[in-house]
Amino acid sequence: MLIGGNKEKVIANMKSAAERGDLNCKVETDDPVLSEEEREMLIRHYLENYKTFRYRFCNICARALTDTATRYLNRKTRIEGLENLKKIHGGAIVTSNHFSPLDNTAVRKAMNRGGYRRLFMVSQETNLAMKGWIGFLMNHEDIIPLVKNPDYLRKYFGPMIRERLKQGHAILIYPEQEMWFHYRKPRPPKRGAYYYAAVNQVPVISCFVEIRDLPGKENEEFHKTRYVMHILKPIYPDPEKNAQENSREMMQKDYQQKVAAYEQAYGKKLTYDFEADDIAGWISPKEG
Predict the structure, then answer these.
(1) 144: which strand partners?
(2) CA–CA separation, 77 vs 75, rounded Å?
(3) What is the mean pLDDT of residues 67-73?
(4) For residue range 27-50, what is the model confidence (pLDDT) as tens digits?
(5) How far apart are CA 207 and CA 80, in angstroms?
(6) What is the spatial distance between Cα 18 and Cα 274, in angstroms, rounded to a whole number?
(7) 216-230: buried (b, 16+ CB within 10 Å) or exposed (e) per residue?
(8) Cα(84)–Cα(206) distance, integer angstroms
(9) What's the pLDDT at 220?
(10) How many Cβ atoms sit within 10 Å of the Cβ of residue 252?
(11) In sequence order, what DSSP letters do the residues of 153-194 get, joined into one string?
């Protein structure tokens, strides 16, 4: 299932970004563009409402919708490496490659199979401005909004992360930051996810989603695809090292694991030279 319209411009943006080595930049063309005032209003509204009875009721509804969508969308998804979750008990940070608005459902299925009833997800605050059923889920599902404001990070974001981890939940943080649509390759991570794992002394559950093409068209631009979710070795902070040292080492180890998983899954060395096959299922103009 694909979300959104024509992806020609998005793919052109990815190609251009890969060629200049800017692998964490925004490439989507339809994301909400908000002023600083609108961003502040969105997060203020979220903070005022997320502990109310109405929010809790909507959260139950949103989780039910997400669980149903997860089962439907991942009925062909295969999970490998579940044994890597056996020794993990309690809160954890989950990292995965980010290539679709729906790729979190594959992560959710894997975490459910591993014993986590709920998966919280860090999401940019601009996603709270989305409309329709996606907007409803963004505002009421198990979302932790991210605002790049030091005061917000200290007063709200950090404590929300800590609280959910203490409750024993898994929290998905995309270290690649921006979504690159159907991009097969793992991109170099940013340090935030690993910092919060290190500060809270919890493991990182390292994941990589392989995308396999299927016969038949999803639409005129893409073939159908299915996922193979690879749960890799968990990464633990060293109690003898500080958060900065741990976060850097955990980040590098996670990236190395994802690169190795990519190379094994696709049978080729990772480079960031752009080619049509980098976009899973894409019917490039050369194919007709």
Answers:
(1) 122
(2) 6
(3) 95
(4) 998 877 788 888 888 999 999 998
(5) 10
(6) 6
(7) eeeeebbbbbbbbbb
(8) 10
(9) 85
(10) 15
(11) IIIIIHHHHHHHHHTT-EEE--TT-S--TTB-S--PPPSHHH
pLDDT over threshold 50, residue 129: yes
pLDDT digits (tens, 9 = 90+) for 138-178: 999 999 999 988 999 999 999 999 999 999 999 999 999 99
Which phi and psi (to 5°) does residue 123 adopt? Answer: -140, 140
Q: Give the number of C-alpha atoms closer than 13 A to the C-alpha of residue 62, restricted to the C-beta side.
A: 21
**Cα-Cα-Cα-Cα dihedral sign, residues 140, 168, 248, 98:** negative
User: Which phi and psi angles does 286 have, rounded to 5°?
Assistant: -70, -30
Give me the half-sphere count of Cα atoms (radius 13 Å) on the Cβ side of residue 197.
31
pLDDT of 280 above 90: yes
What integer pLDDT is reported at residue 143 of this predicted model?
Answer: 95
Give residue 48's region: left, alpha or beta (phi > 0; psi -120 to 50): alpha
| % of the chain at pLDDT higher than 70 | 97
Tokens of 102: 């729906």
Q: Is the pTM of this model over 0.85?
A: yes
Please answer whether residues 238 and 197 qualify as being in contact, where contact means their C-beta atoms are separated by less than 8 angstroms. Answer: no
Q: Which residues contact 167 (CB under 8 A, 6 or more apart)?
A: 91
Parallel, antiparallel or unpaired: strands 223-231 and 143-146: unpaired
The DSSP string of 80-149 is E-GGGGTT--S-EEEE-----TTHHHHHHHHHHHTT-S-EEEEEEGGGGG--HHHHHHHHHSSEEEE---
Backbone angles phi, psi at 17, to 5 degrees: -65, -40
In eight-state DSSP terms, residue 279 is: B
Instruction: Name residue 177's amino acid.
Output: Q
